[in-house]
Amino acid sequence: MSKRGRKEEKMGRAPCCNKGEVKKGSWTPEEDKILVDYITKNGHGTWRSFPKLAGLRRCGKSCRLRWTNYLRPDIKRGAFSSEEEQTIFQLHSLHGNKWAAIASRLPGRTDNEIKNFWNSHLRKRIPNKNGTLQTNPPSKSTDIKFTLPPWENIRKEAEAETRLPMDPMLLSPATGISDGNNFLHEWGSGDEEPFQKHMDRDKVACLIPTPRPIKFESDSVVTVQAGPYFAGTSTSESCDQGIKEHRRFFKEEAEEITNAESQNSYEPENASDITLDLLLDFPNDGEYLQYV
DNA sequence: AATTTCATCAACCGCCAGGGA
DNA sequence: CTCCCTGGCGGTTGATGAAAT
After folding, report:
1. Which of A53, A59, A195, A283 could be A186's S-S partner, Cβ–Cβ 3.0 to 4.6 Å?
2. Structure confidence at residue A15 (pLDDT)
3. C1'-nearest nucleotide to the CA of A77
4. Which of A72, A93, A285, A273 is nearest to A180 (CA)?
5. Same domain, yes or no: A178 and A273
6. Which residue's CA lies closest to nucleotide B10 at its C1' atom?
7. Dist. CA A254–CA A35, nearest whole Å
8. Same domain, A113 and A31
9. How many domains does chain A divide into?
10. pLDDT tens track for A158-197
11. Do A35 and A169 belong to one domain?
12. What is the DSSP string of A95-114?
């Protein structure tokens, strides 16, 4: 049958499966076994035709999801390690809700799993404009303290590297922090003005995605928190200085990467290197460098 | 002990981009 | 060049169990 003929046969978008015949809801162990056995022997082929071939009363899309998210042999189950948490924070600061991009940097973890983990655990730890955490009263098992945000570990790690030792006076907790996604949006827009106004209005420096602590000379009132997000409360002047330093930092890192790549020797080895690697994948195809 | 509230996460839905005919 | 199919993605829902009252 010609495509045009098929088009005339059924107008509009064809449903991915016959809703009346497919089963929905949780998968049973029997269904899982059928799916895994079939793929092991034959591969999945075209997902659309997979359920019929495998003998499952499921939508092909549902089969694909079940396989890619839960039954694939290379899936890593269990709790996220602190290293994985840190990596997710760093990647999210760069990519936002691009779960597939984040998952591609975490072997064995799926986008769905990371998305759920972010929404149920990590998102709560990002402070909002009031300086409070985006969370209901924390459960007993959740150790959330505004004075010790999750990226504190990263700061300590970076400090240990001694590449950018922190001035102790810069480490007091930030008290007013804007939302990182807002910042990313404004940063990505390439329009500095809204960002400046935002800072002036709230007397809040910023929440800048950064893989390592940033050191800069400050006036007497600035306080700084460093990590996946760099944040601070400050006067307008010290804000400006902080941003300048931030940009210089990124520029230097980008140059480092460029140099290393030109020697064909850059191999990401840890979370920090992965983040630097990601700078080159930043939205707008690296266009962000013009603002650095 | 019973009921309500909350947190978690597996699964679904709709949309989109890429590729092939 | 257009149309369609497919896989992939991100947002959302709802079932379930745990915690609180």
Report:
1. A195
2. 53
3. B9
4. A93
5. yes
6. A26
7. 46
8. no
9. 2
10. 333 333 323 222 222 332 333 333 333 333 333 333 233 2
11. no
12. HSS-HHHHHTTSTT--HHHH
